[in-house]
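Sample intake sheet
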Amino acid sequence: MSRIAIIGAGPAGCATALALAAQSGHEVHLFEAGSHTRARIGESLAPDAAPLLQQLGVFEDFLRQGHAPCPGSAAAWQEAALGHFDYLSCPHGPGWHLDRTGFERWLALHAVQRGSRLHRQHRLQAAQAAPGGGYRLDFRTPEGERSHHFDWVVDAAGLAAPFATRIGVARHMFDELICLHVRFESAPAAFPAQSLIEATAYGWWYAARLPGDGLIVMLATDLSVMRALRLDQADRWLQALASTRELGPRLRSASPNSPMQLSFAATSQLDACTGPGWLAAGDAACSLDPICARGLHRALQQGCQAASALADGCSAAALTRYQQQLQREFSLQLGLQRALYTQQQRWPQSAFWQRRRALPALPTTQAAA
């Protein structure tokens, strides 16, 4: 029996655990640093995630959770006026606006019901290769320090990649976008069911309905721009939002009901996503700009792929295939990200847009791997 530690019980970690549940001979432990109560961003799921949820055996129950439908998106991007991208022709129907925190708790519950052991409030402190193979992992918990030995480790703990970092794997940064987001008590009646995106000279805005009539609004920009315009101050952020052409008028009657939160949305990749006895999945392996709107889909997909590699015994060939899969997908998405930013030419002198249009491609050897 293989003992497998999954660091991070978010979408990538839980998808890995759920996919492993279909296999026999594994003892799976999920370690979550928090307690699945913190508000998270990344609350829209495209309809093409349906086959992944079906593969994980949770789709029917997912539909019963009451997530709000998302018929598509509208963006003031290349032009000032809104253009529309609808899911009308998608064979899987509309997408979903999620209660992201509830979605992660729900995934974790299913993983536990399928046999995984969930350890909340376990923060990884150290990782060391064990003499007989596998790794010794040390965690800080409310009850004190805990140590465990595992045959395999999956790092699915987001951008921080705590396991990979602790064994000396470096991260290559392509871009370092930041996001300032605020939740609003309710969406105005006239606010559409679609997600809205609006480009400005200093970045771009995103707004979407949440289940229960809530609303999230986010500004994506650079740290230097945020500091220069003092956009981390609530009044300046609200003034900037009010001055937008499309979002401002639609949100005139909306009131924030939470303090502003800052998060990093780096475009990045670990220098290696696999190694003897371990692999990384989700944002821990590679993270993309949220303009690609593929974060949750990629997390679920890579969880399934990680489980497949583990099913093959994590042989050298299986690890190589997994690394190549992630490399190809990251290269494709990085190209899409560059193309989206290149389309926007309304502010040629803007440092924010110049940086995005100059986003470097993968080294030829990596992209071809």
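Comment: The radius of gyration is 21 Å. Residues 246 and 278 are 46 Å apart (CA to CA).
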